[in-house]
Amino acid sequence: MKIPEPRKLKSGSYFIQLRLDGVSVPVTASSAKECKRQAELIKAEHRAGVRQLNKSARDLTLLEAETRYLLHHKPVLSPSTFRAYDIYKDKRFPAYQHKRLTEIDWQAMINEELAKKSEKTVKNAWGLVHASLVHVGYPVPSVKLAKVPVKEIPFLQPEEILPFCEAVKGRPYEIAALLELNGLRLSEARGLTWDKIDIVTPEKESITVQGATVRGVGGYVDKETNKNRSSTRVVPILIPQLIDALAAVKDKSGKVVKQAPQTLSDDINRACERAGVTVVGNHGLRHSFASLGYHLGIPERQIMEWGGWSDFTTMHKVYIRLAASDRSLNQARVKSFFEKENANENANSISKA
Length: 353
Prior knowledge:
By secondary structure, the chain is mainly alpha-helical. The protein has three domains: 1-53, GCC-box Binding Domain (2-Layer Sandwich); 55-147, Tyrosine recombinase, N-terminal domain (DNA polymerase, domain 1, Orthogonal Bundle), CATH 1.10.150; 158-326, hpI Integrase, Chain A (Orthogonal Bundle), CATH 1.10.443.10. It has 14 helices and eight strands. It has helices at 32-47, 62-73, 79-91, 106-114, 119-136, 158-168, 174-181, 186-191, 240-248, 261-275, 281-295, 300-307, 312-319, 324-352; strands spanning 7-8, 14-20, 23-29, 197-198, 206-209, 212-216, 219-223, 233-236. Strand 1 and strand 2 form a beta hairpin. Helix 6 packs across helix 10 (261-275). It is globular and about 85 Å long.
């Protein structure tokens, strides 16, 4: 059935009268566009079998609630987030998906899933359940989630960075690896096109980071926007080797990075092994960038700007990591302080005697 055009009411609102399986369903909204969008959503839910007319939230199954949430929010969710939620809907809490919301022991559901999956996976899956219950108007139960252990992501120590750069030199993935070491997220590097790179003007050698390539339900998707407002930025090219590698490419059209994420991660790990340095994978290179900035005494606000981080909390909790050499130096400084103080005290004692 084709969605009819909205009709403007005397009140100024817009109205569509749907008929689904012989039942009239009125749709009203403040604009014609929103009215038609809501009508299309109701029709899509009905076709998917998750909208039974006049069915209250208490009568819904968990699967119906989650599907309603995803159908309604698909236009505003990033492709990667929608894909993750869609997987959670299909794979998590399988024994409870077809139970009515009123029949579910929520804590038992979480405990059973924890016996099979990690704390982080269960927490993320519960995030979808929570959002879905709010969306359909069902009271969100109070549950206890297991604490997610902090996973330390390995990164290159300052003395390991140059050997790594040498190990990737001339390799097909050299540019991708150095872009990440220059502060770009993997999704940003894979979304980068040649028109966003300036290596012509020496004093303005830079990358305009705008957009990203992420994994959606049907494959990889190019996004016009970045992760957050701070992510859209101009980054100076800080690695001379990266400038040389970019300049050496003859065909400067389309995407700069063409390797798939897993292939790139495997190549980076093999380069780390050849160089005899810490094996870091994709995201570890971005950690290395931030940690090197700390090691060199670069102001945090500058690192945030280059890396596209939106707040200091993320920088401190995740990315600013003390290099082993910095820890040793700091320890030596503290020890030196106490040794000097002890020496001064001994000298004073001798002079008084």
